[in-house]
Each structure stands twice: as C-alpha cells, then as structure tokens.
Design a protein that fits this description.
single chain, about 170 residues, alpha+beta, four-stranded antiparallel beta sheet, three-stranded antiparallel beta sheet, 7 strands, about 20% strand
Length: about 170
C-alpha cells in the first residue's frame, strides 16, 4: 500500500511540474529578416507599415515587411485532457478490477473483500489517466507557422489583421 501512495504522490508531483511548464498560452513569435526573434504575448495593433506587439511589459513595433516568419503558438488544453483522462482511467480501472475479482483461496489468504480492490484500481487508473490525458491535451493544438519571406506586403497585412482578429 505504501508503494501505491508513493507512486500516486510522485505522479501528482510530475503532473504539477508539467502543468507549470506548459499550462499557458505562449502567444506569438516573430522572426525578422535581420534574425531577431520577438516573443510576444499578443498582437497589440497594426498599421499599414508596422506591427505592434505586446512583449511582456513592453510594446514593440516591427516593420511589417521585415517579418519573415510568424508563429502562433497553440494553446494548451492540459486540464481538459487531464480531467477526461482521469474519469476514463477511473472507470476502466474499476471495471477491470471488478471483472477480474476472485475470492482469495488458501489457508492464510486474506482478502479485502469486494469493493476494496476496485477502489484501489479506480484510484490508480484515475492517476494514470490524469497524466496521459493531460499530456495529450497539452499537445492537442499545434503551432501555426507562417513563412512570409516570399509574400507580398498586402498578404502580410491581411494575415496579420486576421491573426489580430483571432485573439
């Protein structure tokens, strides 16, 4: 029983560490023709010549024609996946233990009775489902990469207006 609680504690610690690393929307990354990389939380505004980005506490402006690559990072759906995985894992663990339960036999066999093994299996299934579902949820929305080096000025403006409207 002690190894089960250690496994559960270690799994929950791993989950919370992963959540801290991937639990937020990472915004946008703009790579300019000069090789500069700007990581922004969001697009702030747009004129016909410049793109204004919110980079932490500062606002940065970049000439639209100097942006070669624009990356919109996907959002993490860690918690949605974790809760769905947790419920599914608990159900699968419970059903598997219930279907395979046999009364212990032998002179010194001790059983915890019907219900005990099912609960332990449901808890372990929920922990495993939480981790697996969380990881799947975290990577479920991929990054969108726009290569703009060979695109016209009008295409760049239209794309950036579209991205600005999606926020």
């Amino acid at each position: 029983m002690k190894s089960s609680s250690n496994l559960l504690s270690g799994s929950l610690l791993l989950v919370f560490l992963c959540t801290a690393a991937m639990g937020q929307d990472k915004g946008l990354t703009a790579i300019t023709a000069g090789g500069d990389t700007l990581v922004a939380y969001s697009l702030d505004s747009l004129t016909n010549e410049s793109l204004y980005m919110k980079c932490g506490a500062a606002n940065e402006s970049v000439p639209i024609d100097s942006v070669e690559t624009l990356i919109r990072h996907g959002r993490s759906h860690f918690w949605s996946g974790a809760w769905i995985g947790s419920g599914t894992g608990a159900l699968v663990g419970f059903i598997a233990a219930y279907a395979s339960y046999e009364e212990p036999k032998g002179p010194i066999a001790v059983g915890i009775g019907p219900g005990g093994e099912e609960m332990v299996s449901a808890i372990l299934g929920a922990a495993a489902g939480f981790i697996i579902g969380g990881v799947i949820g975290a990577v479920s929305e991929p990054d969108e990469v726009y290569h703009l080096s060979s695109r016209s000025h009008q295409y760049r403006v239209t794309l950036m207006r579209f991205l600005l409207s999606k926020q």
